[in-house]
Amino acid sequence: MAGHNLFSVTPLVTGLRSRRRVHMRPGPFNAIPLVLAVVSLCAGPVLAQSGLASLRGTVRDATGAVIPGATLTLSEPATDTLVRTVVSDDVGSYEMPDLRPGTYRLQVELQGFKTFVSENVLLESGQTRRVDAALDVGDAREEVTVVAGAQVLTTDTGQISGRFNAEEYQKSAFVDVFPSPFAMFSTQPGVQGSGWGVVVAGQPRSQMVEAMDGVHSRAQGQTNNTNFMEEVSVDIVNAPADSSRVTSYNMVSKRGQNEFRGMAYYEHFNSALNAKPFFETEEVPFKLHEWQLELGGPVFRNKTFFYGSWAAQRIPEGSFNLATVPTPQMHDGDFSEVGTPIMDPLTGTPFPNNRIPAERLSSVALAAQENFIPLPNRGGEGALANNFEWVHPFHWDYTKGDWPFVRIDHNLSDSNTLYGRWMTRRTPYVLVTNLPKFFWTRLRDHQRVVLSDTHVFSPAVVNTVRVGYSRDFIEDGEEQHGEVAINGADAVATLGLQGVNPDGFSAAGFPAMDITGFSNLSTVTGGIKSDNDELTFEQSLTWTTGRHVWNFGVQYLTYEDFEGVVPNYGSFTFNGEITGHPYADFLLGIPFESSRVPHPLVNRRQTSKEIGLYVRDSFKVNANLTLDYGLRWDYFPAARYEDGLMYNWDKATGAVIVPSDALDAVSALYPDTIEVRGGDVIAEPETGNLRPRASVAYRINERTVIRGGYGAFTERIGEFRGAQGGGPFEIDETFQNVIQPGDAPLFAFPNPFPGLAFASVPSQSVSSYPLQTDNGTIHQFNVSVERELVSRVGLRLSYIGSRSVGLNYSLNINKPEPSTTPFTTDRRPSPQFVNIDEVRSDGSARYDAFQVQVQKRGGPFTFNAHYTWARDQADYLNEENPNDVTGHWANAAATRRHYAMVNTSWELPFGRGRRILSDASPLVDRLVGGWAISTVSYFGSGTFFTPSFSGSDPSNTGTFGGIPDRIGSGNLPADQREPTRWFNPDDFAVPPNGRFGNAGVNILEGDGLHVHHVSLAKETRFAGDMSLTFALTASNIFDQVHFSNPASNISTATVGTISGVMSDFQPERAGRRMVTLKGIVRF
Questions:
Q1: Which residues contact 672 (CB under 8 A, 6 or more apart)?
Q2: Domain end: 349, 373, 391, which one?
């Protein structure tokens, strides 16, 4: 098996591995006509040419003098294609831009010198690679050949990026249930796992864009099946001007060649091989079957090529779940086991013996309890946390998946190439929620199409035009695998609940009941959640002139989102405000808050666009110094609803603004206390989004490079943020209960909605967006020193930083100043509203990181190790007090302070051609040869989380619960942390009357990372190019438990306790030990 590395980060060594062989050609060199192969579609609407590669270098003689006039020819052996021919300039330099990733052969000729040949020149997506040529005096019919292989030192750019290829992905030591690139991404310096996705150099996923074959998509992982990809690259720091986002990744699909090549694999995933999850009392049996078939080759040799594949998964597995349910005594209204008194809201005194009389129990609550709330079955008598367990019979994600894929490449001429690619994903779901009867169903159907035309006008001018289309279809509530979710209309009838479904919708759903401290009663409502389309157009022109490589581009994207019928059956909050205990509130049928959408708008479509222009130049100042600089302009027109029913809120007048021609569509139920006016509601887009980029790379000598860069990026706010289509057209009523001793509550089950005439109980909330869009600016910078320590081993030291200003965020501004005066609704700045969510653009963030990386590429043993210390903070995360937001710096939740990764790949030195048993017989070689081991290890500190309290409003602002006071550290020493007491809740207290808490945001630290993965593979080769590989892969081989963050509400009995572990499928794979068996046939 050839040497490989699990991934490659911004390469760290230059240098060619010499395999010098000199021989005489059989005849004189014949001039080869110039045939320019076109670049493949590797760059896209937002990534532009970042998916392509460039090759450059200097031609010198044996004394080191530069040689002008040498002819350099680049060819691709896999397709027998002559790709590019150039001539070295007057300082001996050459440049070949816009090359598709692949493996090439470079030949350099000049009369009077031996011909120089560099074999196996590997060009990777987004890479600028240097290959210098040293010509020896002699006969041109003699060749001096070197083997280039993979580059290890980045010499010509200040950008930091990472990448991995198909072979590295197949051999990785990860158990990948979903074939996404995120696990491999988490091995890149500066990239950390966060839920299903990643954060990159402190940038959240909202500032990342995904592309496949260069075509932008918002799908964010829904169709990124890595099995079809030849290479995946990620821009980590200082992306050039052709990228609109601060970070991005691009997936380059496989393509056919002149030889037929195929592969088939089957992977088996079985619970019998896995460790039992930490909190499960018994293991849930399940299996996963995954397979892929692929074939590529010529339709017409040297002209037309195809690649086709089908990947599939079948997951007949269940999932173990925990919930917190009321005790049997609580079911009967008996709270004698609870230490706090249960207050009678009608008298203001405790119920005798803490027991609610049976005649006071709500018929709606009793029906919900009887039909949907199970009794405890775990933890013993009196257990109040995680006291119910069950096995959901389906996988907790999709139950099966099918991914067909087709790509056709065609050479129209020597200078014009087309290709097209289509893929789809179809996955049904039967999903678990908080309790067994609240499962829900979903169908996802995603498709992507790419068409590309590339024309090479000359060796110096290349133009690419591409069009991309993608569709994202999601429908909830329909029957899947014979399972039918709860019907909301039927549930409402069973409960006897009134006022939640006046339009008579009949679809999946349930009236959501949030009972603090207990598992919620809720499910996902049914309907077409999305039927979304994206259309992308991009044109890019690259022009090489002298020492400059200019790139000009334009990008145009359109988005259309459609949402069908999604009924709402009301939602209700029980937080203990009425009686002192949330479940007692529920049994009495007295919510603290109720909300509903009585007449929802349905079948609506909204549209948005995005435009980008850029120019960039790569200037080779001399052989050792390269400057890259560019300028980008981004324009984001405001989103619109096609029906014109949109609104905004004017802070100056307090009025709701709608388009003048939409005044007649305002609901008759909208409160008269709220003024509605005609006017402008669509924001003017910002036109000044000019963002410069620059980087520099200086080769001190052949083994040492210093490089760095700066870039400004426009904050990505979101395609449809600001398009408000509800408001006065779709009444979203929210009521907060009012009750005085001796009086009945304002509302209670079975009819929990008082009339709109109750002006003292405002029922509406609004959002306010500025009419002038103000995108924030992200300033990112880095400086790196790289050194080749020994052959193929490189060291990189980097400082990476960013400063983000003018960031957008939203918060509720309809709060009075904190005081000791009891809260009343008329103290709000706008008493006619409950909440007013205002978008502000004064947020700031800062990121500082120091990074060290050592890696070895090539040979039978490779490794890559890196460590990052990072501080990631923002000043707008505590939004409790709208009058005092910015300036309070807090940790970003997802970025770990310390993060290290080590991976290795070792081809064991046994068998023919190896160091041990090199002359073994064929039988012995079949047994001992072809073995390889790959490992990945992570070490990291914990993510951050925030303490909280509930049930009271000490600030007297109508804010019940929030951030407590901090009277101690809160964080316990590592040796004192237990799943039942992860932090010290005694270090926090409910704030005193008259103010918000002072504890701050994200001050507590969760569990860290200490996880190791390993893969053992045996490859057996047969006649021709056929081989068979068996692999055993184990994630978290030592079954190290990694806990999720604990319950942090100091007002609940479960505070400080942990009820879950990290997901098996988050990028670092830090869940339980999982083992797979895999067989691969290649031919």
A1: none
A2: 391
Residue 380 maps to a domain:
yes
Reading the block at residue 324, the tokens are 């917190």
Please name the residues in contact with 752: beta carbons below 8 A apart, sequence gap of 6 or more: 497, 499, 570, 572, 589, 591, 594, 735
52 domain residue, yes or no = yes
Q: Which of 336, 330, 294, 153 is nearest to 853 (CA)?
A: 153
Q: Percent of the chain at pLDDT above 90?
A: 64
DSSP letter string, 107-165: EEE-TTBPEEEEEEEEE-TT-EEE--EEEPBS-TTBEEEEEEES--S--S---EEEEEE
Residue 762 confidence class, pLDDT cut points 50, 70, 90: very low
Length of the chain (residues): 1083
Examine residue 101 and state whether it is found in any structural domain, yes or no: yes
Residue-number span of the structural domain to which 111 is assigned = 8-153
Question: Among residues 239, 164, 157, which one has the least CA distance to residue 203?
Answer: 239
Dist. CA 206–CA 441, nearest whole Å? 27
Residue whose entry in the numeric block shows the structure tokens 């157009």? 537
Average pLDDT, the chain: 88
Query: CA 612, CA 800: separation in Å to the nearest integer?
Result: 26
> In this structure, what token pair is assigned to residue 283?
């293991």
Which CATH number covers residue 48? 2.60.40.1120
pLDDT value of position 1017: 96
Q: 1068, 1009 in Cβ contact below 8 A?
A: yes
> Rounded distance, CA 51 to CA 234, Å?
10
CA separation (Å) from 727 to 10, 25, 907?
49, 80, 64
Task: Report the range of poorest mean pLDDT among 280-294, 311-325, 410-424, 744-758.
Answer: 744-758
Strand partners, 197: 194
Q: At 367, which helix (H) or strand (E)?
A: helix 363-372
Tell me the C-alpha distance between 214 and 218, whole Å.
Answer: 13
Question: How far is Cα 1041 from Cα 1031, in angstroms, rounded to an integer?
Answer: 25
Q: Is 927 helix (H, G, I), strand (E, B) or coil?
A: helix
* pLDDT tens-digit map of 15-67: 333 333 333 333 332 332 322 233 333 333 333 355 678 899 999 998 888 99
Q: Pull the structure tokens for residue 891.
A: 């940790």
3-state secondary structure of 291: strand
Cβ atoms within 10 Å of 818's Cβ, excluding its own = 22
Q: Which two tokens stand for residue 546?
A: 């002298």
Task: List CB contacts of 156: < 8 A, sequence separation 6 or more.
Answer: 56, 128, 129, 130, 618, 620, 626, 697
Q: How far apart are the first and last CA of the chain?
A: 15
CA–CA separation, 878 vs 124, rounded Å?
A: 43
- Tokens, residue 529: 């959640």
Look up residue 156 and give its amino acid: D
- Look at the alpha carbons of 235, 236, 242, 244 in this order and tell me if their dihedral is positive or negative: positive
Contacts of 139 (CB under 8 A, 6+ apart): 24, 114
What angle do the packed helices 363-372 and 488-495 form, to 10 degrees? 130
What per-residue string of b and e applies to 212-229 under the rule 16 or more CB within 10 Å gives b?
bbbbbbbbebbbbbbbbb
How many domains, in total, are found in the chain? 2
Tokens coding 276? 């039992």
Report d(CA 93, CA 131) in Å as an integer: 11
Of the candidates 93, 120, 153, which is a domain's last residue? 153
Note the pLDDT tens digit of each residue in 942-951.
Answer: 999 999 999 9
Separation of alpha carbons 82 and 223, rounded Å:
34
Query: Is 611 inside a domain boundary?
Result: no
Confirm if 970 and 929 have CB atoms less than 8 A apart: no
Dist CA 607 CA 605 (whole Å): 7
Two tokens at 657? 């603004």
The pair of structure tokens assigned to 575 is: 């937080």
Cβ atoms within 10 Å of 277's Cβ, excluding its own: 16
